[in-house]
Amino acid sequence: MIKKIVSIVIAIFATSALLIGVKDFPNWADPNQPASLHVSPRYIEETVAETGVPNMVTSVLADYRGYDTMFETSVIFTAGVAVMMLLRRPYKND
Amino acid sequence: MISRWEDIIIETLSRFLVPFMQIYSLYVLAHGHGSPGGGFQGGCIFAASFVLLVIAYDIFEAKKRFSEKINGIFCALGVFIYTGIGWLCLLLGGNFLDYGKLSKILPTDPVMARYYGMAGIETGVQITVMAIMVSIFLDLATAGRHEGALEEEDVGVDSK
Amino acid sequence: MIQEQFPALIVVTPLIMSFILFTVSWWNKRLCFPILLATLSACLVFAIGILDMVIKHGQPIHYHLGGWDPPWGIEYVIDHLNALVLVAVAVVAWLVALYAKSVVEKELHESKLPQFYTLFLLQVTGLFGITATGDMFNLYVLLEIASFSAYAIIAMGERGADFAAFRYVIFGTIGACAYLLGVGYLYILTGSLNMADLAQLIPKLFYNKALLVGFAFFLVGVGIKMGIFPLHTWLPDAYTLAPSAVSALLAPLFTKVGAYVIIRIMFTVFDPSFSIKLYPVMDILGWIAAIGIAFACIMALAQSDLKRMLCYLIVAEMGYIVIGIASANRLGLTGAILHIVNDMFMMACLFTVVGAIMYQTGTRNIYQFRYLHRTMPVTLGVFVVGALSVVGVPPMCGFFSKWYLILGTIEAKKWLLLFVLLASSLVNAILFFRVIENAYLEPRGEHAFAHDGGHPSISLDEVPWSMLISMLMIAAGIILLGIFSGVIIKHVIQFAVPASF
Amino acid sequence: MWELILSKYNYWIYALLLIIGFYAMMAKNNLLKKLIGMNIFQWALIFYFISIAAKKGGTVPIIPGVHGHHGAEHLVVHAADYINPLPHVLMLTAIVVGVATTGIALALLINIYRRYGTLEEDEVIEELKR
């Protein structure tokens, strides 16, 4: 019971923090928000000239931020090895 | 443990579906440059074909086609391809993952070398995602007790 | 020429070697450990090379991954602070790997070893990457790699470890998501993910409330990963129940790398004036640290399980680092950075000793340590070195970082923090005296027996050589760090503190 | 007031989802429900990031009819016509991380259930004390 009350209090606290934050956000889908103006225009405008790939998600994923994607694949690998280690039992004839 | 339950409709239909799913996953991979798609999506679809096989038949049937050892090697192979391409760029004199330097060994200009470099790493991603998804699914579905595996008491993990 | 590639190599080498190790293990399991040790040796060389380069140039090294310029691509930035932490992580990881072999072979089933070594390498990859990166989102991904390998290897411990690991998964995910939310808040306000770029864009937004919320999310997220006081609840269980080698790896490294991330975010990404002048962040942090240290010391006093006691000690040590940050002056921050490095060695020392005692006697209860100084004299000698360092006795390194922390609190005129620092040193002395008393002093009654028949049949029964060597090297490291702390401060830490202080 | 709500309604929904997930993660007694709460939490975050990417008048970030950079020298692309690809990329990573977390957590849950015979948190703690 105490756990629920504490959780509700923390949740209310976090909600108010979130709401305070949201008030200062730019409007949703605003073409002039900073996120659309600072870094991303180069990805959109130069993707074909710099990488030859018309799909910007692929070009950013695999080239501009390819290093992230390498670790993302490693995350999957880590999870696979982790699940193997946690669950898999060795064979009898091993 | 998923045991076998024979049903001819399900088995025939899934046997039909599996090759189509696998070809579709390769299509998703190959067209990732020009349309939505790429290694992750393709890998998941490829893994789904195996999951379908496991559900329609049983685990032993599926593992005959894709043994555990090969799967484990594929897990590492995909990421190895990705990282290996990065190292190749490094050895060719660029920074890590600078695909433009691949033009020294590919018959293209640096921009198209980036294009092909991306294709290479997407393939690596597909292999790893496919193998790991299958491996996680099999481990979770059988709780790790594949055929011929030791019981918990022999392993001694649980007795502590 | 090749030295320019070191910043990438130090992260990528353990990564690619982990795949190779995993593949090789399907054929030959005995090759795993040599591969692990060789890889970590290479990393050590890279780390020292980077530190050498940074000291020579006096400038941060920038490494553009994929050849793209910073705000668009990912960049590694290595300045004095990174380089120092990289070297410390490399050294401790190497020593713990040497130590791990015998312990792991005893505690884990033989078939789990290849996976354990793979995850060990991935863990080290994550830690190196977190330290080296200059990109906020890249840091998140690497944090997740390090966390995932930690979840899995913690769950292989004794009874209850899997439940502790599950709680760690829940808390760790909250932490990682809070960190990611912080990144999202910065991204929506500035449109950038690069740390240096953000540092230029943020001062324009100082009075934006969303920025403050994002900052709070960063503190909470990284705070969970590093185990600051109210967010530490996962830590004692997880690190106590984990296998000895795992807690010897994670306890020194992961929490300290988290402390590094806090310093990086507070003083590099956010301007120091944001967290010092604009909002009372430092006062709040100081209070949290003070309460946390008091709490951790009381909890540590109540434990009879040595490993659990040390886990609470970690919470207290993180409190020290936060005190150094909260002093918000040059001396305090010097102390905090020095303490990150020192604490890695101290915790590695203490946790390896606990593992060694577990290895030989099978118990961690302090009250069952009788005659230990006869059966395991070297191990206990190493323990005494670590204990004296934590208490803060001069030739050991712990004294010097505490000295700077104390000077920092005096200069900031935060008398409460000064009092907490001094009082907790006293409590540490009591804590360790309790252990040493039990291990060294023999009960009087049995001593009388020993007069005629000689000692009870107790013979030297030390741990294997690889463990002994690694523990002795860690102890030597503690003393060397103490002797050369002046050199380290003069050549490295002096430049690691932000210039505005 | 209405304008404030309507112009940012995506972000309000994200905040709501986040809190639901957080509450489930903290307060629920069943470990599986905690895991579900964790998933809601992560998906709220993904929803938030995807909301950042949106632009009024923008379309999917794929330039039609181009393949390779030859013959595309005179291609003119306006950044305002396409939505921001970067959050999508970040969220691909976050989705993968979410999948991986779920996998590990499920594996842990299987182990917990096998060893203690229950998934209720208080019962597991009772079992551990014995």
Rounded Rg of chain A: 23 Å
Total helices of chain B: the number is 6
Tally of domains of chain B: 1
Q: Which band does the percent of strand residues of chain B land in? A: under 5%
Summarize model confidence as the mean pLDDT of chain B: 82
Low-confidence stretches of chain A: none
Give me the number of helical elements of chain A. Answer: 5
**What is the string of SSEs of chain A from the N terminus onward?**
HHHHH
Roughly how much helix do the residues of chain A carry, as a percent range? over 70%
Description:
The complex is a heterotetramer of chains A (94), B (160), C (501) and D (130). Chain A is 73% helix and 0% strand. Chain A has 94 residues and is mainly alpha-helical. Chain A folds into two domains: 1-28; 39-94, no CATH class. Chain B has 160 residues and is mainly α. Chain B has one domain. Chain B is elongated and about 55 Å long. Chain C has a domain at 321-445 and 457-501. In chain C, strand 1 and strand 2 form a beta hairpin. In chain C, helix 10 (244-269) packs parallel to helix 13. Chain D is mostly helical. In chain D, helix 2 (9-27) runs antiparallel to helix 3 (31-53). The N and C termini of chain D lie far apart (57 Å).
How are the elements arranged and paired?
The complex is a heterotetramer of chains A (about 90), B (about 160), C (about 500) and D (about 130).
Chain A lengths: L1 H22 L10 H4 L2 H12 L4 H9 L1 H22 L7
Helix pairs in contact in A: 3-4, 4-5
Chain C lengths: L5 H19 L7 H26 L3 E5 L8 E5 L1 H28 L5 H20 L3 H20 L5 H30 L4 H7 L7 H18 L8 H7 L2 H26 L2 H7 L2 H21 L4 H22 L2 H32 L10 H4 L1 H15 L5 H16 L2 H26 L3 H10 L11 H19 L1 H12 L5
Antiparallel strand pairs in C: 1-2
Helix pairs in contact in C: 1-2, 1-4, 2-3, 2-4, 3-4, 3-10, 3-14, 3-20, 3-21, 4-5, 5-6, 5-10, 6-8, 6-9, 8-10, 9-13, 10-13, 10-14, 12-13, 12-18, 13-14, 13-17, 13-18, 14-16, 14-17, 14-20, 16-18, 16-20, 17-18, 17-20
Chain D lengths: L1 H6 L1 H19 L3 H23 L31 H32 L4 H9 L1
Helix pairs in contact in D: 2-3, 3-4
